[in-house]
């Protein structure tokens, strides 16, 4: 049986978020419940500008995500630095291009988690998640926070990035601080917890469902199963089948539920 697929999609200028993404990926894979692929948000800045920012070259082993690729996953872990308490332009540019996916409902009901990098402890570890939520809400996606399950989130002995909203790191005003072991531990735990959630929500995976649908084509002009001919009592007698119970009898099945969600 195919496993659900999770995309870890990140944007990282100075590789702080990249390190968190690697720990998230390790946590996802540790469970053996999901298949994982890693992508980068497409860069919108020119090489000239990136050079002036002294930004290192982007890893060549991680491809850039495309809008058409997004629906192939069953869940998403998005990671990015904050920009004035919001997601940076690179992240916004991708989501601004998902109008077609919104129209078709391609991302509806799929879970997503978030992780971040900020310049200071109070630089947007929580507000960045809050301001990003409308992107998920308008697509009908399920936001999966981590709460305070990891004890490092309650450790006041040192500066530790992350919050109940998601894992995080504090890069420092000059970007010189690298993610600590405790921050990476939170990110890894977030990956583990998210994998378990996705496995419960989509046990087979979207790719498996698509393959199954493709394997059972419906002949053109064929009548739906519900409209198929109902065998007569004589037919049932000849075949040895038991006749349907009379309406109102105790054995009558009063409800038939198929591909419906019932809210009680």
TrEMBL record:
InterPro entries from the UniProt entry: Flavodoxin/NO_synth, Flavoprotein-like_sf, Flavoprotein_WrbA-like, FMN_Rdtase-like_dom
Residue ranges constituting the Flavodoxin-like domain according to the UniProt record: 6-194
Residue ranges, compositional bias (Low complexity): 220-233
Region Disordered: start-end pairs: 220-264
GO CC annotations, alphabetized: membrane
PROSITE patterns: FLAVODOXIN_LIKE
Highest taxon of source: Eukaryota
One example GO MF annotation: FMN binding
Xref: PANTHER family: FLAVODOXIN-RELATED PROTEIN WRBA-RELATED, FLAVOPROTEIN-LIKE PROTEIN YCP4-RELATED
NCBIfam families per record: flav_wrbA, PRK03767.1
Family statement: Belongs to the WrbA family.
Record protein name field: Flavo protein WrbA
Organism: Linderina pennispora
């Amino acid at each position: 049986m195919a496993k659900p697929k999770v995309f870890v999609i990140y944007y990282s200028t100075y590789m702080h978020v990249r390190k968190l993404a690697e720990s998230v990926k390790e946590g996802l894979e540790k469970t053996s419940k999901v298949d994982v692929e890693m992508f980068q948000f497409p860069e919108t800045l020119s090489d000239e500008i990136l050079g002036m920012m002294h930004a290192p070259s982007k890893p060549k082993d991680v491809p850039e995500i495309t809008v058409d690729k997004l629906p192939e996953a069953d869940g998403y872990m998005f990671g990015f630095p904050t920009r004035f308490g919001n997601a940076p332009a690179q992240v916004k540019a991708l989501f601004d291009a998902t109008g077609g996916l919104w129209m078709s409902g391609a991302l509806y009901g799929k879970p997503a988690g978030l992780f971040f990098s900020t310049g200071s402890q109070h630089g947007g570890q929580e507000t960045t998640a809050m301001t990003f939520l409308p992107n998920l809400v308008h697509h009908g996606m399920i936001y999966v926070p981590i709460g305070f399950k990891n004890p490092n989130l309650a450790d006041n002995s040192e500066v530790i990035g992350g919050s109940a909203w998601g894992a995080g790191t504090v890069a420092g005003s000059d970007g010189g601080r690298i993610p600590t072991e405790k921050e990476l531990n939170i990110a890894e735990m977030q990956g583990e917890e998210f994998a378990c959630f996705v496995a419960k929500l989509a046990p087979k995976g979207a790719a498996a469902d698509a393959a199954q649908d493709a394997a059972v084509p419906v002949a053109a002009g064929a009548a739906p199963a519900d409209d198929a001919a109902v065998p007569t009592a004589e037919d049932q007698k000849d075949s040895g089948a038991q006749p349907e119970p009379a309406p109102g009898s105790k054995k009558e099945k009063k409800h038939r539920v198929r591909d419906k969600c019932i809210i009680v």
